[in-house]
């Protein structure tokens, strides 16, 4: 087994289909009423807790924390929402984005082609194309994942790479890798799905898989940062709050990585979970715990960010 045996085209096609599937499915759900979705974000920000629930719900629906954050920032840019109102939405989006990892954890890749076929047939026989779009999107998501997985298995069996993955990569290197790759492809969902597959085939250990997830959570903030370029101070405050929120949570979990890992290993209930589902549970736990830990300090963090990006008019 060597690097020449890897079909890089299949990996790229698989990644493309996966990203398309997530986006297409999300667009189908979002098209229920985009104006209503925007209105919901605008009106559900009277209290941070309400915003968190709304952000989590919308992100779970449209399958993209980046999209939720981008919509929020666009509302701030249009002066339809303030930074203070956006805080809860941004925090909730991190929880909602874990739904994709749970979908991947269901391991229904073998049925992906049937979802695609059914989606195509439905698009011809029903008037409302929304359901067909969602089914087709799910099919593309899993078929793309299956294409990537088949080639990742080959890569994982290459002796040199196998040794590198099992011995050389330390938690900090995994954290940086997760951050950089997610920044590059601008999808934490896609990167986490790859990590789930690598862990499933024993190419990486759980101790290394966790920092990959944590790094991806920081990397996903790049969308908010890019969306804030050229925006007013409220826009920059929201983007930077997103960065601080994810970085703080990651730092805490990296410090507690060793005891957290041993706790997971000792929990027999988690051992019975399918590997990909185990990582989905860990990812969800990380985002929920980060929100709970930082929730009492929302106002203080907000004040800090406001001082860093003050209103220059006043």
Overview of the molecule:
The protein is mainly alpha-helical and 314 residues long. 80% of the residues lie in helices and 0% in strands. It is built from 18 helices and no strands. Helix 6 runs parallel beside helix 11, helix 14 crosses helix 17 (275-294) and helix 14 (233-255) crosses helix 18. 46% of the residues are buried.
Molecular shape: globular
- How much of the residues is beta strand, in percent? under 5%
Q: Count helical runs.
A: 18
**Parts with pLDDT < 50 across at least 5 consecutive residues:** none
Estimate the helix proportion, in percent. over 70%
What would the average pLDDT be, to the nearest integer?
Answer: 78
As a whole number of angstroms, the C-alpha radius of gyration is 20 Å
Number of beta strands: 0
Largest sheet: none
Q: Assign the structural class, choosing from mainly alpha, mainly beta, alpha/beta, alpha+beta, or little secondary structure.
A: mainly alpha
Q: Gap between N and C termini, in Å? A: 65 Å
N-to-C order of helices and strands? HHHHHHHHHHHHHHHHHH
Brief summary:
It is built from 18 helices and no strands.
Question: What attributes does this structure have?
Answer:
mainly alpha; globular
Topology (SSEs and partners):
Blueprint: H1 8-30, H2 34-43, H3 48-62, H4 65-77, H5 83-96, H6 98-105, H7 112-125, H8 130-157, H9 159-168, H10 171-185, H11 188-200, H12 206-219, H13 222-228, H14 233-255, H15 257-266, H16 268-271, H17 275-294, H18 298-308
Helix pairs in contact: 1-8, 3-5, 4-5, 4-13, 4-14, 5-14, 5-17, 6-11, 6-17, 7-8, 8-11, 10-12, 11-12, 11-17, 12-14, 12-17, 13-14, 14-17, 14-18
